[in-house]
Amino acid sequence: MKRLEIEGSVHLYYAYGFVMVFDKSEPTPQARWIQQHENQGFARRERSVMFSTLRQEGKATVNAFEGWPVDLGQGSRIIAVPLKVLSGELSIQGPEEWPEARYVKVAPGVNTVILSQRIDEVTDQLVLDFFIDAIATENSKILKAGGLHNIPSVLLEIAEPV
């Protein structure tokens, strides 16, 4: 598993219980949340996704890797989504930070973005491990559902813009 270089700070401020991941060229990455998105832990558009976080707000450390996680045991919640990234740059932001310049370079096209979240036992802070694979999954997948309740049997794949 290769670590990807993060352009910008590796420390993220998240708020309102979510983080945004989007194609850097997407001018309006936000999505309208409904209850089903809350239950499944994400709201996805073609070029952006908003992941709910394990906590409502705070500071998080961001890591980025190429490929799929080798060990699913470390994350409390792990979600994989297909995401179109035309620019080759994937932005990772807290909603209060946007438009902060934090991104990783990825293969242009449709990628799979996997977010593995955990609470660091030493710092008691959220850790966001992003895994980016150039081979896209057909549909979103909840690999580990820590903290999610009433997960729908069929995931809602597309959210409306704000």
Layout of SSEs?
Layout: E1 2-3, E2 6-7, E3 11-14, E4 18-23, H1 35-40, E5 42-44, E6 48-52, E7 58-66, E8 77-85, E9 89-93, E10 103-105, E11 109-119, E12 126-133, E13 141-145
Parallel strand pairs: 7-12
Antiparallel strand pairs: 1-7, 2-10, 3-7, 4-6, 4-9, 5-6, 8-11, 8-13, 9-10, 11-12
Uncertain ranges: none
Separation, N- and C-terminal Cα atoms: 35 Å
Question: Rg from C-alpha positions?
Answer: 14 Å
**Overall number of strands:** 13
Helix and strand string, N-terminal first?
A: EEEEHEEEEEEEEE
Shape label? globular
Average predicted confidence as pLDDT: 95
The CATH homologous superfamily is called Competence, DNA-entry nuclease inhibitor, ComJ
Number of domains: 1
CATH architecture: Sandwich
CATH class wording: Mainly Beta
CATH topology: Substrate Binding Domain Of DNAk, Chain A, domain 1
